[in-house]
């Protein structure tokens, strides 16, 4: 909301010396957000001049310029700046032709700076020295028109020559812009901002609705009858019609060709609305002033009376922006006896707009249902200043006053006579009193407010406060539909008294607590993956059913998932059962931006409902009441299981090509590296066995087990699936049920002590059948070698010449160490031989030299 300060001063006492920054600071204290400061950026000597003569001079470029003599006032001399009586006549070159001798114009003298910035100086052009510039409205920042210079007579002005044009045209005004939150629609008006400034500074407020003259005119509008308005809303929302308050009036004999006064033009422009025509400008001016939108119709173009109804299927309306719109049966329209003449609360129709030939004007102001207006705005992609206010709530008490104010300004500025006929209907619901116990505000805010502070604050915002046995009964004002309970009243007290009264106190953690075991291990796992070079990402938990079915289950078929009742994206209407869709989305987004080497991971919850279970039916406790055990059980039953998972994705190169180092591509080994990291930091043995998954390469998929429980899988995406997803051919992924791993992990995790005795290393190559998994053979070696074996790792898998067909040679690097002595080579060899013997017994393994 942009607020011209000169306009604000009409309703509240703003000190003359107050700067825009001071006004901003005052409004910020009561919860409005500072945005910007707007001005016309016109400085220096800009005065009223009178054209004494001009001589057209054709130029060689085909253009004709006018060499003008312009009187810009009396010359001033002496220390006191008194007039010398001699006229200041300036020679000025002007390319415009829309003026005559005797016209009073705006002259920018040397030293002035116009918006742009455009400094003015005396300069030689077209064979003359132009000592200034005769300005157009656009050059002054007063509009977009540039058909010629600004003639003051077109604005109804006849000032004295030499008058300061900056002050005359309101170009010295400045506007402060504040951001208004959606719950405070009343602040989309000068009236509302004036109240907030008064609340902040204590400056006296002059509510325009309490002005006796306007109040009497509004009362006459409410009593007027005779103009036909019919209500035929056959699809009411929330138990009531889409129109809550409606006021209509007629003014006859207006002169629509009269210009909009310069003071109104400048205020509208500073407020962010361009001047269109006098009647329309008046409607917009009152909307900004009182917060109540209104609309004006050319009465001669309205057939019969007005009808408030829903649009009929197939009906069209050409709105004021010139676009033809097909209406929806849910749209609320203002129609005459045959066709719609406006989209209610959003925009009027082109067929009934005010033009220069209009003489009789129908003025309408209404309060529309916010939901209806919001739906129409989004349906037609047609935001407007009026709709912005209706969506947030308009004061129903301002409707008749706004119409009276519009009529008054039309008669004052465009002539005409107010017709006795009119219409008024008010179906608004009076605000409901709210019980506010005396200690409640202090208990919520943590501040010891006095009774006077509470009542004075609520009275300042316009509420009616009546004392009760235990506190007060507070009736919110009609312009505050956001005040619905004692909590919102408490917020208002805190806002008006000042947020600086609320102490900044850090909560003290209760002793003897801290992170749970599960939280510590989750953080440990996250830290280990980040330390291993992976980048943590956070993806949306909303996916499509197809994604859940593909990645959330090992075999094809429906995967049970929770469907959202009101999804943000209809294509992602389910809660995820797996982390992989989110990781793949991250990979696609990064690839599209040129990042071809990725190693990312995510730790988050997935949602795995039980088949045929119903979720989301639990009732939340209201207010400050504690939930009972029954309530808690109901809430727990309404939420699907949400285990923590960890997932990772690799593509591109794990090691980039560099001097002396070829590129090393990412693959399944990197995914299994994540498993090894988790196994190490969580002190749990995760077995890797051959497995299958419908979304993964059948020959490069591993099932992850702890004992007989499956805790996840790792593998590479099917090449065809990767191609469909616009990913490289090799994309390795892994997902682990972190909650299950933590559950099965050792309760006490401790580091091995460092042994000071040297290790003995040996290699062992065993020939076994190709069907024997390397992991099973490794486990037998560990069992057979005994406690002296400190470490074992597979270093080679050979199949080829010298090895019988159907067999393979697996080579393991063994490291032996004793904790109390230096091992001999014989002891290490003996341990190795025991491992060979056990492998031969279990798998028929043969030692290979």
How would you explain this protein's 3D organization?
The chain has a seven-stranded mixed sheet with strand order 27-30-31-37-36-35-34, sandwiched between helices. A five-stranded antiparallel sheet has the order 5-4-3-6-11, with no helix packed on it. Strands 13-16-19-20-21 form a five-stranded mixed sheet. A hairpin with an 8-residue loop joins strand 32 (653-655) and strand 33 (664-665). The protein is of the alpha+beta class and 849 residues long. It is elongated. The mean pLDDT is 90. The protein contains 22 helices and 41 strands. The protein folds into six domains: 2-40 and 174-201, Phenylalanyl-tRNA Synthetase, Chain B, domain 1 (2-Layer Sandwich); 46-168, OB fold (Dihydrolipoamide Acetyltransferase, E2P) (Beta Barrel); 208-426, Phenylalanyl-tRNA Synthetase, Chain B, domain 3 (3-Layer(bba) Sandwich), CATH 3.50.40.10; 434-501, Phenylalanyl-tRNA Synthetase, Chain B, domain 1 (2-Layer Sandwich), CATH 3.30.56; 517-614 and 636-744, BirA Bifunctional Protein, domain 2, CATH 3.30.930; 760-847, Ferrodoxin-fold anticodon-binding domain (Alpha-Beta Plaits), CATH 3.30.70.380.
Write the layout of secondary structure elements.
Elements: E1 2-4, H1 5-8, H2 20-29, E2 33-39, E3 46-58, E4 64-77, E5 82-94, E6 104-108, E7 113-114, E8 118-119, E9 123-125, E10 128-130, E11 133-134, H3 165-168, E12 174-179, H4 190-201, H5 212-223, E13 229-232, E14 243-252, H6 262-270, H7 278-290, E15 295-298, E16 306-310, E17 316-318, E18 324-326, E19 332-335, E20 340-343, E21 347-348, E22 361-368, H8 370-380, H9 385-392, H10 399-414, E23 417-426, E24 434-437, H11 440-445, H12 451-460, E25 464-467, E26 471-475, H13 486-497, H14 517-531, E27 535-536, E28 542-543, H15 545-551, E29 574-575, H16 580-592, E30 598-605, H17 629-637, E31 644-651, E32 653-655, E33 664-665, H18 668-681, E34 687-690, E35 696-706, E36 709-717, H19 719-724, E37 731-737, H20 738-744, E38 760-769, H21 774-785, E39 789-798, E40 807-816, H22 825-843, E41 846-847
Parallel strand pairs: 13-16, 27-30
Antiparallel strand pairs: 1-12, 2-12, 3-4, 3-6, 4-5, 6-11, 7-8, 9-10, 14-22, 14-23, 15-22, 16-19, 17-18, 19-20, 20-21, 24-26, 25-26, 28-29, 30-31, 31-37, 32-33, 34-35, 35-36, 36-37, 38-40, 38-41, 39-40
Helix pairs in contact: 2-4, 5-10, 6-7, 7-10, 8-9, 12-13, 14-18, 21-22
């Amino acid at each position: 909301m942009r607020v011209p300060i000169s306009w604000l001063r009409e309703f509240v006492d703003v000190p003359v010396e107050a700067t825009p920054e001071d006004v901003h600071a005052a409004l910020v204290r009561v919860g409005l957000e500072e945005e910007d400061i707007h001005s016309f950026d016109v400085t220096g000597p800009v005065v009223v001049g009178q054209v004494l003569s001009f001589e057209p001079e054709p130029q060689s470029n085909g253009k004709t310029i006018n060499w003008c003599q312009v009187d810009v006032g009396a010359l001033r001399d002496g220390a006191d700046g008194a007039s010398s009586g001699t006229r200041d006549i300036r020679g000025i070159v002007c390319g415009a032709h829309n003026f005559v001798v005797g016209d009073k114009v705006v002259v920018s003298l040397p030293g002035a700076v116009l918006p742009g910035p455009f400094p003015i100086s005396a300069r030689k052009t077209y064979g003359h020295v132009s000592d200034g510039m005769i300005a157009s409205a656009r050059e002054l920042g007063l509009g977009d028109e540039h058909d010629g210079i600004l003639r003051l007579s077109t604005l109804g002005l006849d000032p004295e020559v030499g008058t300061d044009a900056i002050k005359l045209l309101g170009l010295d005004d400045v506007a402060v812009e504040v951001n208004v939150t959606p719950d405070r629609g009343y602040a989309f008006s000068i009236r509302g901002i004036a109240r907030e400034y008064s609340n902040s500074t204590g400056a006296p407020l002059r509510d325009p609705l309490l002005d006796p003259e306007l109040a009497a005119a509004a009362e006459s509008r409410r009593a007027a009858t005779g103009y036909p308005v019919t209500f035929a809303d056959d699809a009411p929302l929330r138990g009531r019609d889409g129109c809550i308050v409606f006021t209509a009036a007629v003014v006859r004999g207006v002169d629509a060709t009269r210009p909009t006064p310069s003071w109104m033009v400048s205020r509208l422009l500073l407020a962010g609305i361009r001047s269109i025509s006098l009647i329309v400008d008046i409607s917009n001016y009152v909307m900004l002033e009182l917060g109540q939108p209104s609309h004006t119709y050319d009465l001669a173009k309205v057939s019969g009376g007005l009808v408030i109804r829903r649009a009929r299927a197939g009906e069209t309306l050409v709105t004021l922006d010139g676009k033809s719109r097909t209406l929806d049966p849910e749209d609320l329209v203002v129609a005459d006896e045959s066709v719609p003449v406006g989209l209610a609360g959003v925009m009027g129709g082109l067929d009934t707009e005010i033009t220069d030939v209009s003489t009789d004007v129908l003025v309408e102001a209404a309060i529309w249902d916010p939901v209806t207006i919001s739906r129409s705005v989004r349906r037609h992609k047609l935001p407007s200043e009026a709709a912005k206010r209706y969506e947030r709530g308009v004061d129903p008490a301002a409707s008749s006053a706004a119409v009276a104010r519009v009529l008054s300004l039309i008669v004052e500025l465009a002539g005409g006579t107010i017709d006795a006929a009119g219409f008024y209907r008010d179906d608004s619901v009076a605000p409901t009193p709210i019980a506010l116990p005396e200690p409640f505000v202090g208990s919520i805010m943590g501040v010891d407010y006095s009774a006077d502070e509470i009542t004075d604050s609520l009275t300042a915002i316009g509420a009616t406060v009546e004392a009760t046995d235990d506190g007060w009964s507070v009736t919110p004002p009609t312009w505050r539909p956001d005040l619905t309970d004692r909590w919102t009243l408490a917020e208002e007290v805190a806002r008006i008294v000042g947020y600086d009264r609320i102490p900044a106190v850090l909560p003290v953690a209760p002793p003897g607590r801290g992170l749970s075991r599960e939280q510590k291990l989750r953080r440990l796992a996250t830290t280990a993956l980040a330390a291993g070079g992976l980048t943590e990402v956070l993806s949306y938990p909303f996916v499509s059913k197809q994604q859940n079915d593909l990645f959330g289950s090992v075999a094809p078929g429906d995967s049970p998932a929770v469907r959202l009742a009101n999804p943000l994206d209809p294509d992602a209407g389910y809660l995820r059962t797996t982390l992989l869709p989110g990781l793949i989305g991250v990979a696609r987004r990064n690839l599209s931006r040129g990042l071809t080497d990725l190693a990312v991971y995510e730790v988050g919850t997935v949602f795995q409902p039980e088949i045929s279970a119903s979720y989301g039916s639990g009732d939340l406790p209201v207010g400050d009441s504690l939930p009972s055990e029954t309530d808690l059980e109901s809430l727990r039953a309404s939420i699907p299981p949400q285990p923590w998972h960890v997932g990772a994705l690799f593509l591109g190169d794990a090691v980039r090509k560099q001097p002396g180092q070829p590129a090393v591509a990412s693959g399944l080994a990197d995914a299994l590296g994540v498993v090894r990291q988790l196994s190490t930091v969580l002190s749990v043995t995760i077995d890797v066995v051959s497995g299958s998954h419908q979304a993964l390469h059948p020959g490069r998929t591993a099932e992850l087990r702890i004992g007989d429980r499956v805790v996840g899988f790792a593998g590479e995406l099917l090449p065809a699936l990767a191609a469909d997803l616009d990913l490289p051919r090799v994309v390795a992924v892994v997902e682990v049920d972190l909650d299950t791993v933590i559950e099965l992990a050792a309760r006490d995790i401790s580091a091995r002590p460092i042994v000071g005795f040297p290790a003995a290393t040996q290699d062992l190559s065993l020939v076994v059948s190709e069907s024997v998994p390397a992991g099973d053979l490794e486990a037998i070696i560990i069992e057979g070698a005994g406690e002296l074996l400190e470490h074992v790792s597979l270093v080679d898998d050979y199949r080829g010449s010298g090895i019988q067909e159907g067999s393979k040679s697996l080579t393991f690097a063994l490291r032996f160490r004793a904790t109390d002595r230096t091992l001999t080579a014989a002891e290490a060899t003996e341990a190795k031989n025991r491992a060979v013997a056990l492998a031969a017994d279990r798998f028929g393994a043969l030692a290979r030299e």
